[in-house]
Write a structure and sequence with these properties.
Layout: E1 6-14, E2 18-27, E3 30-40, E4 44-45, E5 48-49, H1 52-70, E6 76-81, E7 86-101, H2 104-114, E8 123-135, E9 138-141, E10 148-162, H3 163-175, E11 179-185, H4 186-194, H5 197-202, E12 204-209, E13 214-220, E14 223-230, H6 234-245, H7 249-259, E15 272-275, E16 280-283, H8 284-308, E17 317-321, H9 330-338, E18 341-344, H10 363-377, H11 379-384
Parallel strand pairs: 1-6, 6-11, 12-17, 17-18
Antiparallel strand pairs: 1-2, 2-3, 4-5, 7-10, 8-9, 8-10, 12-13, 13-14, 15-16
């Protein structure tokens, strides 16, 4: 009788505000939580890594907490990338030489040719996602293997990021005494944990609202249509509150978390909040009006990006992840601006996931851990892959 394979899967989400780590065990096809940890992030400025050593200390603190909880040591992790991510659609044509059955190597060559693009300076390809294939001039084929054809053309979505930022992030992880199994877009990791395949087919968008930036991913018909970083995050909400109410940033963050609601009309006009340091009252409706204005900006930008790729009216549901999604009323503003159903992106698919971290802020790291489990379970397949083709999600 064959011994069941057991793997430990690790995800590391190095955000601008919090660094989170999750350790799971994959056994008999089931993924079970062993431990988790988080720490305040240091070394980040406006979503960019400014102090590698400080960021590494935050990663190490989150890792050590997760290891203590799991009662084991880990050496590698799948790491999330955000802040400088953007996607582009490309195509690659491959001539089979004669009419015959399409093989997997033909598919791989067409995809590889689609990646032969001139990249802007300081840009690298992070991941490659096939969308569909044109077989002898006939479009719309997702799986062209075994079809009879003379040529195939691959349409792919390239996920790119800053080479410098990626190098700094990997270096920080290495300084924390960890190896990097793979680097994955944060938005795609969150999709992996919270958006079901049937939702992707119908048309789904996920917006992960971080401290300094927000990460957007859009699916339709099983294919990735758009990935990009948006230049707005939770700290922009907090700074608006600090300026609008003439208070400090830390107190503005406290008011936002304790009393904030992203819909001003839900607040009574005679409701006031005491500003402790100055011993004065401020209008709660004013606080929420400020938050609503910034939320409208965020979802307006998202709607513009959807329209740019022709997906504005194709989205059936939107999922909100990240710490910024925890602000009350965000889903209401999103539904108003996007014209579709909006849900909080909660992590699913991991056994023994505790209630205290069952919220959108932990969805990305859950997805990174699930991605780590998939890499390990398909180790033999990935050993046979090479170059960029090893980064294609199957």
């Amino acid at each position: 009788m064959q011994t069941p394979k057991i793997f430990d899967a690790v995800g590391l989400d190095a955000g601008s505000a919090r660094t989170r780590c999750v350790i799971c065990r994959l056994e008999n096809g089931c993924l079970r939580l062993l431990g988790y940890g988080d720490a305040q992030s240091h070394g980040w400025v406006k979503g960019m890594l400014a102090d590698q050593a400080a960021a590494s200390e935050s990663m190490l603190a989150a890792l050590r907490e997760a290891e203590r909880c799991a009662q084991l040591s880990v050496e590698t992790a799948v790491v999330g990338v955000g802040g400088t991510v953007r996607g582009a659609n490309c195509c690659g044509l491959y001539d089979l030489g004669r009419v015959r059955a399409v093989e997997q190597r033909d598919v791989n060559r067409a995809v590889e040719r689609a990646t032969r693009v001139l990249l802007p300076e300081d840009t690298m390809i992070l991941q490659v996602f096939p969308q569909d294939f044109i077989v002898d001039g006939h479009p719309g084929h997702r799986h062209p293997r075994k079809m009879i054809a003379g040529q195939i053309e691959a349409n792919v979505h390239l996920v790119m990021t800053s080479h410098r930022e990626h190098h700094c992030l990997v270096g920080a992880v290495n300084q924390a005494h960890m190896g990097v199994e793979e680097t994955v877009s944060e938005a795609l990791a969150a999709c992996y944990a919270a958006v079901m395949p049937q939702d992707r087919r119908e048309g789904a968008a996920l917006l992960s609202i971080g401290a300094h930036t927000s990460e957007l991913a859009v699916y339709f018909g099983d294919a990735l249509q758009l990935v990009m970083s948006l230049p707005l995050g939770g700290d922009h909400f907090t700074r608006d509150v600090a300026r609008g109410l003439c208070i400090g940033f830390d107190e503005a963050a406290t008011l936002k978390h304790e009393f904030g609601y992203a819909r001003a009309d839900s607040t009574a006009e005679n409701s006031f909040i005491e500003v402790s340091r100055e011993q004065r009252d401020v209008s709660r409706r004013m606080l929420n009006r400020i938050l609503e204005s910034r939320a409208l900006d965020l979802f307006h930008i998202m709607r513009q990006e959807l329209a740019r790729v022709g997906m504005e009216r194709a989205i059936i549901g939107t999922f909100l992840a990240g710490g910024g999604a925890c602000l009350d009323g965000m889903w209401e503003i999103a539904e108003q601006e996007l014209g579709c159903r909006v849900y909080n992106a909660m992590p699913v698919g991991i056994e023994d996931w505790p209630d205290e971290i069952y919220d959108p802020a932990w969805t990305t790291v859950a997805g990174l851990t699930m991605y780590s489990a998939k890499l390990k379970s398909q180790h033999e397949i990935h050993k046979q892959s090479y170059g960029l083709l090893g980064k294609i999600l199957k």
